[in-house]
């Protein structure tokens, strides 16, 4: 009997996927109960790089926690910076100069493009295509260079401060960014010709890994996962923060609910992020990049505060509880892929193993963010 | 999305307190306080309205009762002082301060916090429920929102809150044999 045929008898076996497996993007372990090549049950096992960031938050001052935020979602660290500084600014009532908000948006959107490029390369690698990864890393390298020149780091950024950003940009950054936008726009058709229109990719992704809109709601999926299921939800539009309302951009939404739809959402988002960066550079106001009179020791008034931002993977929310002292009383980090991955067990039931890996890749997992 | 209608429905199920909070300052629109036994009803209301689950977490309020009592004592002492001064100014005998009955301190609480949001409209609803620290039990909502399964396991890891009816309440992020709860304020490694 072929291994692809579902067996009549209940003969199943347990297959361990990970924790050391290239297709699980880090140290995620999935305990699979298999019937031949078909998945009967899948149980993700988390916690291999759990670092208890929330406890660390309770043990240091508000400002001392800032570098931690770059070490959860290391692919879109600036969005995590943004979420945390925003909630503290909301709590402590700190106003941010407009130029600083523009710089935050420019750098965070560049970071989003670099995150999507890495996802693109790694996703195609999961599906068995090696070379697109090298093209994507070539482009991503330009963003890392640009961000390094202004933030001082290449991956685990800690660029935002309460009340602004730590460093102003210069002419080289503006010129380099404009050149990069042009370069990536020229390269996108190549990506689409090489990969998107590839018949093998289409067969691997179309109608594979369906996630219904109702399932998104029940599991709290956000970001490209819910936008690939026809839900028009983007925190930048839904709950506007920073200076996003001043830019003209679209939220790509696809109705097909399959892995291809999630792929297309991210590919379209690259162009939308470039549009935002371009407009922000055009409109960039003059002025200071740090608010004056930000207290050295921050003591937000008692109470709890929530702030959400749109990261490359979905809605990242921070809930802080302040007791009026110089350290957070409680710091809750709502990681988007934690919720996005929680639906994997239900979504992959009955799927072939390689299709389940395509579904997993389309969720764009970053394990340090899930485990925190 | 009618915020007032949702508020009304939550009041009908007997929520202890439903207040609209200042969204720009707080980041959430409705703040709902329920008893643990009302939780399922409150979450069902949000489910019927099409909300999605954002997160479940806890807060340990260890020392809150002592702080409240201290605050009340300080207030009473300040009032007594004002009265005594007023009496002295009027040339009267200062009133004898009556000893205040100090019973046992009520037990401190753990709070479970549920965040819900809506895809179509901006309406973050925060549901809170409080339980005593010695027996922290609250019904599981994973039957209504399967996504709560992991959030509740995580909260159980960190706070030891027992989600009654949860199908698989084993450590999610902590090691599988973990019997400690690191986010409790009296946790010592």
From TrEMBL, chain A:
InterPro entries: NADH_Q_OxRdtase_suD (IPR001135), NDH1_su_D/H (IPR022885), NiFe-Hase_large (IPR029014)
SUPFAM superfamilies: HydB/Nqo4-like (SSF56762)
NADH-quinone oxidoreductase subunit D domain boundaries: 126-295, 298-372
Topology with respect to the bilayer: Peripheral membrane protein
GO cellular component terms listed in the entry, alphabetical order: plasma membrane
Cellular compartments annotated: Cell membrane
GO molecular function: NAD binding; NADH dehydrogenase (quinone) (non-electrogenic) activity; quinone binding
One Pfam family from the record: Complex1_49kDa
Catalytic activity: a quinone + NADH + 5 H(+)(in) = a quinol + NAD(+) + 4 H(+)(out)
Enzyme Commission number: 7.1.1.-
Keywords assigned by UniProt, alphabetized: Cell membrane, Membrane, NAD, Quinone, Translocase, Transport, Ubiquinone
Function description: NDH-1 shuttles electrons from NADH, via FMN and iron-sulfur (Fe-S) centers, to quinones in the respiratory chain. The immediate electron acceptor for the enzyme in this species is believed to be ubiquinone. Couples the redox reaction to proton translocation (for every two electrons transferred, four hydrogen ions are translocated across the cytoplasmic membrane), and thus conserves the redox energy in a proton gradient.
Record-linked NCBIfam families: PRK06075.1
Family: Belongs to the complex I 49 kDa subunit family.
Subunit structure: NDH-1 is composed of 14 different subunits. Subunits NuoB, C, D, E, F, and G constitute the peripheral sector of the complex.
HAMAP family: NDH1_NuoD (MF_01358)
Protein name: NADH-quinone oxidoreductase subunit D
TrEMBL record, chain B:
Pfam family of the protein (one): Complex1_30kDa
Residue intervals of the NADH:ubiquinone oxidoreductase 30kDa subunit domain: 103-188
Family matches, as SUPFAM superfamilies: Nqo5-like
Protein name: NADH-quinone oxidoreductase subunit C
Family per similarity comment: Belongs to the complex I 30 kDa subunit family.
Organism for this UniProt entry: Thiovibrio frasassiensis
Gene Ontology molecular-function annotations: NADH dehydrogenase (ubiquinone) activity
Segments crossing the lipid bilayer: none
Domain of life: Bacteria
UniProt xrefs under InterPro entries: NADH_quin_OxRdtase_su_C/D-like (IPR037232), NADH_UbQ_OxRdtase_30kDa_su (IPR001268)
